[in-house]
Amino acid sequence: MTPFKPTRRTLLKTGTAAAALATFGPGILRHASAQDADLAPYKSAQIDWQQVSGETITVAVIPASYFENLITLAPQFKALTGIDVRFEKIPPAQIRQKSVIDLTSKTGTYATHAADPMYYALYAANKWVEPLDTYLNDKALTDQAWFKLDDIIPAWRSANGIDGKLYGMPYDGEVTIQVYRKDLYDAKGLKPADTLEAYMANAAALNTPNDRVWGAALRGVAGAGQNMYIYPSLFREFGGDWMKGGKLSVNGPEAEGALAWYVDIMKKYAPTAAANWNWPDIADAFSQGTVASYIDAHSSASVVNNPEKSKVIGKVAYARWPKGPSGKRTTSIWNWGFPINSALPEKKRKATWLFIQWAASAETQARTAHKFAGPTKRSGVNRTSIWKDPDYIKLMSGFGDNFVEATMGALQDDTDVDWRPRVPQWPAIGDTMATAIQSALSGQATIKAALDDAQRRIEPMMRG
Amino acid sequence: MTAKRLRGIALLAISMVFLLAWAFPIIWSVMNSLKTDSDVLAYPPKLVFTPTWEAYRDVLFGSGSILPNLLSSVIISVGTTIVTMLMAVPAAYALARLRFRGKKFAGFYVLATQMLPPVGIIIPYFLVLRNIGWIDTYQGIILIYLSFSLPFAIWLLVSYFEDIPFEMEEAAYLDGASRLKTLWRIIIPQVRGGIAVTVVFVFLNAWNEFLFAVVLSGNTVRPVTVAMFNFVSVEQTLWAKLAAVSVLAMLPVVVLGVVAQKHIVKGLTVGAVKGGGRR
Question: Which value does ipTM take for this structure?
Answer without folding.
Answer: 0.72
